[in-house]
Recover the amino acids of this structure.
């Protein structure tokens, strides 16, 4: 824990652009050189509603991708935001040039293999966002990157054209068949594993999806790093609202904070069937 | 012109500044140390610790409300022994001043906790959180029962002796907070912490059930500040010599100043830290500036200033 | 599909819709009638009326707080006789349904007020506001004293007979609201109004004194909604057959729905009217829409729905 | 009372322009044909802070001037706003094109003489705002209009050039002498009265100023219509927070609501020395 959030800073970020993509908004924020410390899997926490807001808590969003030009001190970060409730809708309504109060970067990052490996990246809905940044890093380390994205319907698939450059293959599944194959992201995993194409699984998306992937990965004894999403009040480990039951190294179940012991966690240790319950 | 004196005392304990974390809103301190040096604030008030390790309540544990939030953590924690072995040494090593908050399930447990703290070097004060259910009395919250709260404090006082100051944290969910305050002062409290959260509920309109797994939760944040100011004002009026550690909805120096004017000798910042990791430091700097700009020579001059000429 | 039934009953009184003004937030009704026809809502709950004309408290009488406000009006009003001579006829003439809120300085005064109302034709119900100081008991608020609140209701019940339903409005500023509710139900209340404002204070950082002339004031608005929901939930759970008129921070149909799910058969809109003169109507339309979209066939099906399977 | 607020509407108004003038902001709002019912002295109540605002009460502002082109259905209203606390600062920060939630018009209006008369208009600080609209109306009725404006310092004097067209004379007083004459608006009133130049006084500004003018007007037995300013929660007469002690026609002192029995009141009836106290 001691190293978590060591590089976190509360900064004022400017909205460089705000584009609607399907049901999401792609927000590009200038966060300066802080960008250098952002790793795939990290998230940010943003104040919403403006100065006199009655919404007092920050909202958490995964960092999708970053880019920087160290010579100019410029660093941009991309977020993919689904307009859900008041806070995220406010965020989606912010015009170019608006200033945002952001704490960045937060939480754990995806672990990167030290040797080139075959990586399977699985994203549900806006959960695909951080996977594109991850894919770039994996690719640069010489990994093979296969990606599977799913959602209920086509407009909830986030798969930008630029992003596809970093992946070796991309499969899309929708539950209504409006894009890609009719079905779920979990459908093709077993055969990919069987074909020996999967050394490690990375995933991000709804908790039920992460649980299903864990089930498959556990059975095949494949490492599964997943980015979880629990309701967070503080995002920095001080409030204890975001806990999940997770098995310790000594085999005991503890209620760990998904904001600082996560969001990236070892899928095999999360007690998926007990999420929302209390560890005994 | 003399230098501005920002220091404060809570009973026999002295602090260089009057800004504190609020119990349960800074975990054990470590996490915030990524954002500022803990020794820069008055003290870290640790999350209420119980005798045994506790997993706390199921999730969801929080709901945002207009200018506030509900929480229902259920005092998740490692238990006093692990806490004393790990957290306290870490805090002291980092030169943080420490106020340990304790919570028990029955009157005896508080005394046992006090006994464990008695021999620990370097603790500035103990905050006795009596806003927890008394398992021996139908789960009635100690702080809502004058007799039970008095007994708790009496037990802690006897066990601790006179060395470590005792602050007793009261709940605003009572008909007459002055009466509860009187009881715990009689039982030996050196100071009072005001206020704990207000009992509330949010119903999730999608599931059409209470949103929190624990159904009810504690309301905190700016929404409750007027209740905190009122409670501090009432209690300071009744017991002007008893120091008060005030809390409830403080997110700026202006807010802290309001609590000080009402009678708080120190101010804890809780929920504001969730939206601003630097909140305690920011409030501290702003309060110092406001006090100086108003012409006060010390924090102490301002404590309870709203009561003047009465 | 049967038509949606939006009507509600509070004891023996029937109302075509469950939306009401909150006492003290609609004056006597006239002023709002510039914005919508009063007959379109469930009923107008009038500002608490006392026996004699009262000038109320000095100004400032209000302070805005985060997502809320404090008020300290001090029950300014013309006295019951003038009220009955002027306001009631006007309301009835405009086809408004009327719930008259009464407040007294001692137990007898409530009975006298009830006697004056007894013979008045066309009143749908009486709301007994017991959140006022009892001048005969050190100014202790009736609603904070189980014995006094019971006596008040007993007196009103005896005087009114069984014709006009009695709603008793409780204060949340008590240790155990269920206990107070039990007392007034035993004494003959047909229903309960929950909640009145929460006692608070704002200190003006310029004058460095309490901002309100009356020092403390009542906190209302969205900030207190979680407390209202909790109180309604607790009381409905304890007395599922007693109708509740809920209020506290409602400004949208979603908010009203939350109170209904917790157990309210009717919902009063108070502070929201200050920011939106059409609030009662807007909330009414939105609530109807939400109920229908959730598949309820009537308001009554939704009342207390959050308690199901328990 | 029955006619008060009969024409009030809650509308969405667009900011046509927002200009800084000295320490104030001049906001021009398009309020459509509602403008036809606005009379000098009326005020408006505006929601502040945006959709998720923790500021739940409307803010009151005097209507400075209105103009309409009935053929186009366009009607604009000008407000002069002092950035005071959170709400007014938010308002002053609203850009051209922003939408505001406004209830308009509210309260009583200045009474206009049926015969041409000599009118003295006295404004303090932003209190001059409604006097320019009033001056136009008085002028159009053939009245002589003398105006005296005052403030603590030059930047707090609001006196637009266009406005000066409707007045026969304009005197300015500042307490620090930074504009006009060093002194107070009340200084020249007695001599103007003595010279027989004043049939009626209209005033708007800080309560202490209104009290001082009332004192002079009462002594000379001159009608004094003043626009008061009390802290208001509702602005529509339902909350009883904005009361002032005022003498009734039957000689009794009553606590009247300054939002619907005002803001324009008969200065001779307001019990200035008892403002903030309770009528006995
Ligand atoms: C680590 C992490 C990464 C996330 N990444 C993304 C992302 O890349 N894109 C995206 O669109 N969304 C993401 N979310 C979800 C996003 O935080 C919520 O959609 C958002 O907080 C909802 O706020 P609201 O005001 O719109 O909704 P409301 O429902 O009004 O929010 C009320 C409260 O509940 C909390 N809350 C509600 N839903 C969620 C949720 N799903 N997760 C956490 N807290 C919630 C809010 O933070 C707020 O405190 C992420 C969440 C977490 C924890
Ligand atoms: C009839 C009327 C006409 C007005 N006309 C103008 C005008 O033309 N230009 C202008 O700049 N101001 C005018 N004001 C004053 C203006 O309403 C306040 O400056 C404004 O409400 C302050 O809000 P705030 O959020 O900036 O300040 P805050 O102090 O944060 O406000 C807190 C609360 O107090 C109330 N309040 C604070 N100061 C005043 C005040 N002076 N009067 C009434 N309520 C107050 C606010 O409405 C709010 O509810 C007028 C007030 C009234 C009653
Ligand atoms: C998430 C959370 C956890 C809390 N845990 C504790 C606790 O363990 N012990 C305690 O005495 N108070 C606890 N509190 C109450 C706070 O210390 C404080 O009294 C209250 O929140 C009001 O202050 P605030 O509005 O600044 O948060 C908790 C509050 C929150 C929001
Ligand atoms: C200005 C004001 C005056 C009030 N006057 C009364 C009153 O006379 N009688 C009463 O029973 N409640 C009174 N109340 C309380 C309201 O009826 C209501 O219970 C409370 O404000 C909570 O609802 P709200 O948040 O919707 O305002 C008053 C509230 C306000 C804000
Ligand atoms: S969100 Fe606060 S501890 Fe994780
Ligand atoms: S502001 Fe509410 S009655 Fe005047």
């Amino acid at each position: 824990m001691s190293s978590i959030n060591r590089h976190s800073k509360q900064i004022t970020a400017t909205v460089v652009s705000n584009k609607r993509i399907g049901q999401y908004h792609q927000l590009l924020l200038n966060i300066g050189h802080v960008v250098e410390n952002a790793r795939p899997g990290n998230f940010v926490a943003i104040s919403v509603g403006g100065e006199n807001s009655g919404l007092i808590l920050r909202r958490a969003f995964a960092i999708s991708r970053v880019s920087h030009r160290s010579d100019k001190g410029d660093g941009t970060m991309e977020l993919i935001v689904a307009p859900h409730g008041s806070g995220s809708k406010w965020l989606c309504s912010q015009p170019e040039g608006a200033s945002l109060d952001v704490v960045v970067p937060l939480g754990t990052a995806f672990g990167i293999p030290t040797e080139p490996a075959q990586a399977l990246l699985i994203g549900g809905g806006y959960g695909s966002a951080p996977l594109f940044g991850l894919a770039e890093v994996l690719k640069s380390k010489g990994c093979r990157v296969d990606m599977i994205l799913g959602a209920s319907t086509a407009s909830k698939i986030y798969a930008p054209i630029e992003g596809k450059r970093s992946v070796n293959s991309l499969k899309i599944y929708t539950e209504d068949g409006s894009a890609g194959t009719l079905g779920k992201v979990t459908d093709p995993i077993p055969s990919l594993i069987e074909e020996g194409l999967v050394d490690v699984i990375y995933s991000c998306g709804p908790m039920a999806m992460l649980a299903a992937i864990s089930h498959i990965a556990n059975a095949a004894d494949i490492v599964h790093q997943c980015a979880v999403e629990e309701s967070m009040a503080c995002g920095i480990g001080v409030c204890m609202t975001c806990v999940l039951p997770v098995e310790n190294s000594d085999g005991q179940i503890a209620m760990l904070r998904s904001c600082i012991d996560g969001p990236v966690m070892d899928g095999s240790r999360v007690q998926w069937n007990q999420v929302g319950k209390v560890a005994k | 012109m003399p230098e501005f004196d920002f220091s404060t005392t809570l009973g026999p304990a002295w602090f260089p500044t009057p800004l504190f974390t609020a119990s349960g809103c800074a975990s054990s301190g470590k996490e915030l140390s990524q954002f500022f040096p803990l020794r820069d604030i008055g003290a870290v008030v640790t999350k209420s610790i119980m005798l045994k390790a506790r997993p706390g309540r199921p999730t969801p544990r929080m709901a945002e409300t207009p200018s506030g939030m509900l929480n229902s953590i259920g005092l998740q924690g490692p238990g006093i022994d692990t806490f004393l072995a790990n957290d306290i040494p870490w805090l002291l090593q980092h030169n943080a001043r420490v106020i340990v908050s304790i919570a028990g399930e029955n009157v005896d447990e508080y005394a046992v906790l006090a006994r464990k703290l008695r021999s620990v070097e370097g603790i500035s004060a103990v905050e006795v959180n009596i806003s927890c259910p008394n398992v021996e009395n139908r789960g009635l919250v100690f702080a809502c029962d004058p007799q039970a709260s008095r007994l708790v404090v009496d037990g802690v006082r006897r066990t601790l002796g006179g060395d470590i100051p005792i602050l007793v944290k009261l709940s605003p969910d009572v008909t007459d907070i002055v009466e509860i305050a009187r009881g715990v002062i009689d039982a030996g409290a050196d100071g009072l912490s005001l206020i704990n959260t207000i009992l509330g509920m949010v119903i999730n309109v999608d599931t059409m059930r209470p949103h929190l797994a624990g159904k009810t939760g504690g309301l905190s944040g700016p929404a409750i500040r007027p209740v905190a100011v009122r409670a501090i004002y009432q209690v300071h009026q009744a017991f002007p010599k008893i120091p008060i550690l005030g809390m409830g909805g403080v997110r700026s120096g202006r807010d802290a100043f309001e609590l000080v004017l009402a009678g708080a000798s120190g101010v804890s910042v809780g929920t504001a830290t969730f939206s601003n990791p630097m909140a305690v430091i920011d409030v501290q700097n702003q309060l110092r500036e406001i006090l100086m700009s108003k012409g006060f020579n010390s924090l102490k001059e301002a404590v309870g200033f709203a009561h003047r000429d009465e």
About this structure: The longest strand of chain B covers residues 123-129. Residues A 43, 57, 59-62, 80-82, 84-88, 126, 129, 229-232, 263; B 64 surround flavin-adenine dinucleotide (ligand 1) (CB under 6 Å).
